[in-house]
Here is the input.
Amino acid sequence: MFIWAERPGQDPNALVQAAAAKDILLAPGQLFRPQLQSTSFLRFNAVYLGDPRFLAFLQSLP
Here is the structure.
């Protein structure tokens, strides 16, 4: 199962890179759009919800 989330005011690609630096996989929503249109949404696996690294990453966001 996947969760879609939006972080208004933040570049989703920057969030993807910040997460990757902590070994967390987030996917920019544009990868799942028919023409790869830009979007502020991210997609991540629901399994991450119980991962302390993911929770710490979310809490570290400004």
About this structure: Residues 2-60 form one domain.
